[in-house]
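Render this sequence as a predicted structure.
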Amino acid sequence: QVQLVESGGGLVQAGGSLRLSCAASGTTFSINVMGWYRQAPGKQRELVATITSVGSTKYADSVKGRFTISRDNAKNFVYLQMNSLKSEDTAVYYCKQEWPLNYWGQGTQVTVSS
């Protein structure tokens, strides 16, 4: 059974940084496409970033230049480094296995105070 467990969320001031981690188990992690999504109160869940098995990345326009997605295939982790955080980045952040099958983590709260 695939499990994705996020960690690293918290409260940070605007302009600060956080690093989210997602630990994957029960899956052939090294071949998977992984992603980070977020959902702010009253809004739909949106894509933040994705990374392929070989490290190709894509980002939402709103986070380009500020966020970096990365992965460690040896440890079965995917990360989201978030810099220059803004109040509009406040949301629950979810890790997702995009391929071959969709699985979601439980989410971790990120709150950016202005």
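Summary. Residues 5 and 23 are 5 Å apart (CA to CA). The chain has a mean pLDDT of 96.
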